[in-house]
């Protein structure tokens, strides 16, 4: 039973037009005149079989990677069908129609009922058709779906038309036809002109997502798995469940906008439940997932019950799968120091109390260490030509757009130029990367005063995976001009004219003193050193009083428990620098760590001579312990041959890790495997061995993730080449691990 049939069997028919969960099929025979005789009248032409030429067509349409037995083709590209008749076909005497139908109310005017005629009454339709050749009783047809046709699963019928009526073939799921977007074709909305771009942004089924902090970039692999069994059907059924009109599904702009709402469950029963609370009981922690197929199939197979839980990189990973599976070029983006500015005034407010400590109760805004969204590549017919290309799309639920939690698509070029009046949600995205950080200090009566403004903290670095590499590509310049440049100031002025609320002009006295907090790379559980650098750029000696607050923090910048509060005073001579060091024991912070193990340090300083204030923040992302992976064989892995991989983890801490999950994942290698350990004692190690059978040639990535409440997202990956010939290259199989 297919996923579509299973869904229909479990949940019954639904009333809206859709492509997978419901269908309405025409009768085998339709009479021209209801008073006339019924059924075939002259024992003439009839259809014996339909050959969809699946293997050849799929290879020609770049869809042979999909683990699906049906024909899958792309828009505006011809595919062939062989129709076997009971006698030879006569173009002068016979009239044959191919019918392609989608949804439960097929209609010619809506593009959900397509006819292609051959023979004596050839008619023009939305799809082109031609007779390629005939041999004995077989007719080879060439069919070309139009460049803007609906995306989805069509049912195929062949009808013989006579003066009395129409005799068509019976419903046969084996002749179903999936039509996808076509990035290879210039007439398609999602066309890309470089083959290497298509291979990376459509065909690559595994990738890297970047996280950590601006000064300490880390990454992990993600299984997009768009070609895995059931995933394509799942993507179409999600649109069905979300009641996306079929008429929208030929328009890439509408498809991605609808998807950005469908993949979160904030205001409907969408695919994933966002959760940033730290409590993931009743679900899977966002840090434990390794890929999209497990999530998408879980959603479908469990009756459209939203999958628990997700955070921004999970939303971005699943969006990548959804879009690439339908043929839309897509890539995952990470923005470091991303502001959440729901008011659109380009201000992110940080409040310090009377003592100079971070006031957690009054600081409502935050700057995320990193935030993941997606870019999709397409022509925007609704915008000026220069705003086509990469478009931001974000399904992490942060704010509503037209009544639903979604964001985009919004042109990256428009964001860079400050042209924010075009659809969709450009103002919000612009603020995420351009907001100013405003520091306030409360007096003893609670009155707030602005003490410092940082205009360059937010939107510091924007990355995506480099083509054909596991390294990152810096695309910050796609979004913004260099800070402080003339073009950057012009962009801000344009953004204000286009509706972004301008900050009041703030004239704060120059302190003439700079402060910076530095920390080396720190592993979870390590003692560490902080260094405060003070640089006096004035022509007089300055006395500076400093308060440093240290908190455990989520990657969203929301702080948890305060574990450090330090006061110091320093006297720095004119045009000189000074440094102060602080040594912290792991026992001071370990009891308070939250997921992903971030420490946020807030520094407030006051220059006594000028009575001016200094503020800065520093995020330290603690590194997790290692997860070891290795292949237990010599020589190269081969298609269809067993391959043993072992994954090992040693608990380096003096506390027990409980409720541990270990996931193994890799497209073309294995479906997601989950191993659970009730506990791993201090100093103990676990070894999990998994038997794989590679299904296809080429470079493969096997990824592993160990996750538990006290230790999140311990990851690693193996990359190796799978070969066909046993005699090829008996060298080390491992190309790289991370």
Automatic annotation (TrEMBL):
The keyword Nuclease does not apply. It is an enzyme of class 2 (transferase). Its EC number is 2.3.2.13. Residues 304-397 form the Transglutaminase-like domain. One of its GO terms (biological process) is blood coagulation, fibrin clot formation. Residues 1-11 have a biased composition (Basic and acidic residues). This is protein-glutamine gamma-glutamyltransferase. It comes from Cyprinus carpio carpio.
